[in-house]
Amino acid sequence: MPSPQRYPENWYEIALSIKEQARWRCSKCKMQCIHPGEDTSGLTKSERMVKTLTVHHANYTPEDNRIENLIPLCSACHLGYHTRKKSNVTPGQLSLFEEIK
Ligand SMILES: [Zn+2]
Ligand SMILES: [Zn+2]
After folding, report:
1. Residue 7 gets which letter from DSSP?
2. Cα 37 to ligand 2 centre (Å)
3. Ligand 2 centroid vs 55 CA: distance in angstroms?
4. pLDDT at 94
5. What are the tens digits of pLDDT across the range 21-51?
């Protein structure tokens, strides 16, 4: 499990540019995720979590931040890459994952 310290200081900017290039869509299931400034007041906490776009490291190496190694994925797809054997993702698992990134 990667620890937050392995991420570079400008990780937030790197991740943001990847997400913007993807127009806030998951590259796997193509779901439109929440983008900054979007009104999410009508969504539940778990809906917001599900629609949060994350950035996955294709080779599972957080130090490798080359563009080709970074894949925009929604929370569920991202979790699926890290827990391949489980097909169903519960909001509880997602909140756990939020702490891991
Ligand atoms: Zn997805
Ligand atoms: Zn990942």
Report:
1. S
2. 24
3. 7
4. 57
5. 999 999 999 999 999 999 999 999 999 999 9
